From TrEMBL:
<dbReference type="InterPro" id="IPR052535">
    <property type="entry name" value="Bacilysin_H2HPP_isomerase"/>
</dbReference>
<dbReference type="Pfam" id="PF07883">
    <property type="entry name" value="Cupin_2"/>
</dbReference>
<dbReference type="InterPro" id="IPR014710">
    <property type="entry name" value="RmlC-like_jellyroll"/>
</dbReference>
<feature type="domain" description="Cupin type-2">
    <location>
        <begin position="34"/>
        <end position="87"/>
    </location>
</feature>
<dbReference type="InterPro" id="IPR025499">
    <property type="entry name" value="KdgF"/>
</dbReference>
<protein>
    <submittedName>
        <fullName>Cupin</fullName>
    </submittedName>
</protein>
<dbReference type="InterPro" id="IPR011051">
    <property type="entry name" value="RmlC_Cupin_sf"/>
</dbReference>
<dbReference type="InterPro" id="IPR013096">
    <property type="entry name" value="Cupin_2"/>
</dbReference>
Length: 103
């Protein structure tokens, strides 16, 4: 169980840091209902995403893909990305280096 707080990041979306080190951070993003949005954004960190549960439509740069439980992918540094929740669930993201803005 993480000692980090659950932080609301949008309507029906929250995040919780699960583990961190200066070189790596693991974060759970929970989407509570279909239509909840992970807004388009970019950051200098390399991100890997694992779909623990639910279904999501992701935009990464100019590409659009639908992902579900067990799927994973990497978002390159600086790539604009975001998602729309199709079925409620949880994404587990890893960032390198750590997202200090999440602490």
């Amino acid at each position: 169980m993480s000692d980090y707080p659950v932080v609301k990041t949008g309507e029906d979306v929250s995040r919780q840091v699960l583990a961190d080190h200066p070189q790596l951070m693991v974060v759970a993003f929970r989407f509570g209902k279909a239509g909840a949005e992970g807004a388009l954004h970019d950051h200098p960190h390399v991100q890997s995403t694992y779909v623990e549960s639910g279904r999501f439509r992701f935009t990464i740069g100019d590409e659009l893909c639908e992902v579900g439980p067990g799927d994973s992918f990497v978002v390159p540094s600086g790539a604009t990305h975001g998602c729309i929740c199709i079925e409620p669930g949880t994404l587990v993201d890893c960032f390198t280096p750590r997202r200090d803005d999440f602490l």
